[in-house]
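writing this on my phone so excuse typos. first protein, seq and then structure
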Amino acid sequence: MAFPTAAKLNSRRRVPYRASLDLYNLLLAGLILLYTAIFTRLAFAQHAGMRTHKADLGQIAQAVWNSSRGRFVEMTDNGFIATRMTDHVEPILALISPVLWVWNDVRALLLLQVAVAALGAWPLYELAVTLLERAHPDRESAAGARRPHCGWIKVPALALATAYLLLPQLQSAVLTEFHAAPLAVLPVLWAFWAVETRHWGQVASAVVLTALVKEEMALLAAGLGLWAAWRGGVLARLERRRHEARETWLPLLLGSGLALAALVWFYLATFIIVPAHAVEVYGVAESSYFRRYGALGDSPADILRNLATQPGLVWSIVGEPARWAYLIGLAAPLGFLALLAPEAALLCLPVLLANLLSAYPAQYYGEFHYSAPVVVYFAAATAFGMARVWRLATRRLTRSSPGFQHLPAFSPTTMAAAALLQNSRTALRPLLAFLLALWLLGWAVQGYGTAGRGPGGGRYDPTPVTAHHRLLARFTAQLPAGAAVTATAAVHPHVSLRRYVYQFPIGLEPPGRADWALLDVTTATDMAPGDVRATVEAMLAGEWGVVDGADGFLLLAKGAANKQIPPAFYDFARTPGAVETDAPLTFTGVELADWPRWRQSWVTTHWMVGEDFDPARMAPALALRDPAGDLLYRWADAMPPALVWYPPDQWQPGDRLHLTTLPLYLPQSWGVVVERTPGLVWPPQEAIVVGEQAALVGLYRRDSDGVLLALDEQLHQRAWPVAQDTARTAARFDLGNGEQLALAAWLPAAERWPGAPLDLWLRWEGAAWPAGADVFVHLRRDGETQDQQDGAPRLVIPYSSASLQTDPWLDWRQMRVPVDAAPGEWTLAVGLYHPASGERLPLAGGPGTEVIIPLPPPRDPPVADQTCALIPASCASQP
């Protein structure tokens, strides 16, 4: 592959600026702007919806803001002034800090992060065009004139840029609050392009910028320096270019020097600067991130030694399914073309291995910011791989003769084929270009459909922004610009552009110096609700007072005279405006909020308080139960903030209350049960009475995408729907005296694995339930029972008052495939029996006493998704 000489590059015909903006440039610019608009909007909504926190957006934004005011990456941590360099060395934060001179808002950083990622598509496109032109069999002449047919090569180049913008890893990075790592994608791609076009000054700038992003990015910068030395120096000399050999010394010396300087910088940043500052905060003179490598060790020396001496251990880690999935996920959205240029992809090997071998799942699942600087190397390698495919495929496609016209007459098909072959330069090359583009786009769209974070993507998860969230601006506007503030975790990034800002309750005591406190008791506080209230009460008993409060927001200041929390603060627990009710307490409904990405659920129940409400006897009770009737959650386990701040003894007649739980991690299927208390009017019309003292008022199940579905309509119908993916079995049992009991069984079609839940829905219908009879449900392998659920018909908790004569009974059984499940013939057996005697009731119309439902054999367990890997409590709900 020959490089053009400097003279040849300078001899290119000067093209007017307007002419250079061809259709492909305009399309690419449009894609970049569209990407920036979509993901900026999503990032802004995530921030407005209070799903950003002190870690990481708040503390990084403060470091950038302080840098813009002349205090290099300064921040407040653990109550005292510290520096961002306790964790990372990121000079890029100071370089981008002037953006806050233009727009003094945290959202400026979110916009910058998205824009930098989007702009990476441009040098990648130019890199692909350059490589494809060079790989063209009849590339530009010495005079620099472009051949018209070379325009086809821009089609796969534009497809590569589009595939880059569809990369799920890049989209996840720009939606993971704000970090320095995604800022490396543009200089890395810029460096690849500059090396190929022999712009050595730009190569140096791009490599230096990459090294300044973060300490481990210096290793990527070193690789880019070696790449420049190889491509522009060593390889050029090996290929014996026609131009003078002395032209190869510049890239050779420059690239080697940049690589050496980057390695020195990596050592200084990682082993000198970070330990020197970390000891002040953590008490240990070393980077805490080396402790993320589990069995490989917790220090650089241990990790390197184990890498060299324990290949079996290393392979066992790399061989885990999730890590293989990570590697495949880097190459698959780019059509695996990066594998044709492994030398370019492996330039990221130090950071790739750091992610791949980490014991911290976020690094090797690709849904955080860690993979952004890695996946761009695969994108650049794809450009090189695509050029190699183009060179090999077009080597023989050089004919342009009309000689087929002199062939003997054949069929039209034969003549058309001959025409294509004889004119391959103008016919087959464009076809090849389009096939390359389709290959890339097909894989890119598939990857986006599986894990993309934008609209239509498999992990699309827009953040809802409510009236409560919008109310925050009222409180931040009251904070003096230079005030030292302590704020709860979700509020912190909204007030972080100041010199002193702490995460509540840090900053209240020395060495902290907070004079203002802004709290939102309804969102993430990283504290138990009772602890938050106790701290506020202690503050109000001292020198602090209330400035403002509404809907769960509370603004406090030292020296404020008012010690009373305003009534509007409690609006997060009650709806303004009194209502009239004859009952002391009325349950009015339930609703659910869900965060599919993390499978978190919030359950809100609604109540009305009447004149005769007595909190000592009539306090409401809520429970969440699984299909077996086992208790999953009750208010006493984790008290909702509304009950902490506005407990029943403060309720007033006419109050309309909405009580929301803390975030919960629940299994795939569960129900909301309201228990009867004296004076409580219930249930609402859609509820199912499931016992003398309880009613099922909400039924939920996660679908295959992890989204919770409310089954209220099925509660109205008192029956499980016959869905397309559900297998149905019907039978009748003979009760004697000419009476029968009809059974309809539904088994949702789903793959099962050892340890997985197995839901079976039964619907019983008949004149009456046979006295003294219970249901048996057995899970069997080769006829041997592995698990069972016996007992009276149940729906979350057992029936005792529902009448079979008025409504069919729903019976929900949940079993689990044994963890040590072995191959065999798996079945479910359902029947009726008398527990006292063991006698079974026969099936009507034939021999036998049980209904047999065949099951497919269990498969291997699925790979834990990122949510499960990071939060074990969520594993029970993994689809």
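second protein below, same order as before
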Amino acid sequence: MSEADTCRQYVLPKLRAAGWEREPHSIAEQRTFTDGRIVLTDQGSRRRKKKRADYILRYTRDFPIAVVEAKPEKATALAGFQQAKEYAEILGLKFAYATNGHDILEHDYTTGQVNQLDTFPSPEELWARLCTHQGIEDEQIAEMLLSPFNLASGRTPRYYQEIAINRVVLAILTGQKRMLLTMATGTGKTITAFQICWKLWNSRWNRDGEYRRPKILFLADRNVLVDDPKDKTFTPFGDARWKLEGGEINQGREMYFAIYQSLAEDERRPGLYKEYAPDFFDLIIVDECHRGSARNDSSWRTILEYFHPAYQLGLTATPRRDDNVDSYQYFGNPLYTYSLKQGIEDGFLAPYRVHRVISSWDQQGYDPSEAEREKYGRNIPEGEFQTKDFDRAIVLKKRTETIAKHLTEHLQSTDRMAKTLVFCVDEEHAADMLLELSKLNSDLVKKYPDYICRVTSKEGSIGRGHLSTCQDVETDAPVILTTSKMLTTGVDIPTCKNVVLMRVINSMTEFKQIIGRGTRVREDYGKLFFSIIDYTGSATRLFRDDNFDGEPDLLTEEEMDEVGRLRPDSVRVVEKRKPDPEPIDPLEEIKDDDTSTMPRKYYVDGGEGRIVKEMVYELDAEEHKLKLVKLIDYTSDELRALYPSDVEVRQQWADPNQRQGIVNMLQDKGIDIEELKEATNQPDTDPLDLLCHIAFDSPLLTRRQRAEKLRKEKQDFFDIYGAEARAILEALLEKYAEHGTEQFAFPDVLKVPPISEYGNVVEISEYFGGPEKLLGAVTQLQSLLYAA
């Protein structure tokens, strides 16, 4: 019997006999729960196979409780047992079953036991076991936990959202006052928060146990983070919604929205939050809570502490780092974490390519001459300026123009209408980039006047209008938005295909928020992956951080009272790693002083520069690490521009003096031979053969193959020398075969074993008839090596 026959004739009847068809939704058959990872290919992208469970058993429509994996009758139940466990752990279920239609294996996560069964447990039995495990004794709590989702929008929560919703609701119902959810950007924190609120609101849960709907406050630090949820996701709450702003007090609603700034006290007004009793709210949800709401020294923390009777839930996209540890200390360890890595693996989030682009200024630094003056006639301080200083302390107009030109060429070679976010150093830099990009794209600016827009705090409502239009998947323009920090978090642009880094980013938390702008998938609009175009080195540096996307690394401390009982509010997170470094301004004399009549930056209009290197990395589908995929084309183009064929390259390379010139010339163009070896996975290939293979499709030889070829074809060269000299040349050739051309460094190579065993440099040269003849023999060896 096939697996399908086994399911139809044996598995389904056994499930029905156990009572699993009491409701139409009780048995979800052949249910996929991931979208299949998106894998980048030369032709574009494709999806891997989706994860699919044979059966997901649901106690109610919105409460899954068990998973069943079926195998053909001829197989054993054990054949599907590991897969059943894997799926149960992914889906957050406590009961996993594997069957061949006759035998049933059960893994009960509530007890840790593996049981052999003849029949499936009934829905009531599994629910009773789960309630015992979760400590649910009150029927009213059980009923509230099972309160249905709102599916009026047609969007059924994904599996991880179901886990997050039910865990938070259970924690609230069982009295946990502070909670945290860590969910990667683009995985639906807002819809998760909405369903949590809906279940509690619809079941009339509240802190006091009265028969009334709860009063809930949705809190964030930016208007866009509360306006979008209020006006879109939370519309089913109807007239229960109210935004607290402008000092207006309203205590007659149930679903409140506010930004901290509208509630907080400042020098101009008393805190609006004080107009509400500390126990007014039953639940407070803090979106993007890593952005300072829980910092010990934050005025916003005062609001949370004032409303201390309320249950408080923090939402964040970033695993624990030292720059967001306060959130973890305040809200506690996450009830559930759904990471960027898992989102990409499941196919719900878009993978990315990283383009590392290096200009000559960023590669070499900018070192002004002693007498050089800038645009406003000021002497430029001595010292070398680096990437971290550009556009923050000193503005190099040519660098700005060169980077804008490169970005324009990238869009021209890919998609000029691909929505693109450009993160600049500050608002002035965002304005400079807008002007340069507008000049270079005047044809599209003529057709779409808002093709490029700046979205910063100074742009106010105009900028927010451009942002709102860009977010609409149906609009063509704006296409490019230049910004500083306004778009780093909480902004959903589903079709964003390019995230451009033009400022140095040191905070891992901010970095993850920025790249999260591109992780949303819109397959219906051709958005399956996105590019990170990095002009500062921030992306490649932070992606290599071992803690880039791990689980929160938490250590906790707990306090006991005098009789040995745990103090309920004493559990706290202990810091473990050093914080990310903050950028340091090398020009301390430049102050951002409003009273100053001189600009706070130095401005240099002259100079020449260019893009010297572009490397493209992709996210490896197996190891979740960046791998270099495009340095080869660039190398080929540059080498063929220098040499018409491989003959001239080989002639120059054979001469030790000219060889170093080739290496230096390639380095000036940003080509590093060791990087090429890594990119092509050819660690043992001779550099000359690698270069000629890339540029002229010449055969590849390893160093050892080239050495053996010389021994075989040019034996007469060795025969003209005595035994000792031949042995020295053989040793030198062996060193090359093992380690490369740097072993021909003369006379240092004569000072290390095994060559040094023949004596000092003078003694060794005597075997060849003197120093000049020794040097001539080594030079001829290299010429013959590359002629072979």
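The longest helix spans residues 397-413. thats all i got for now
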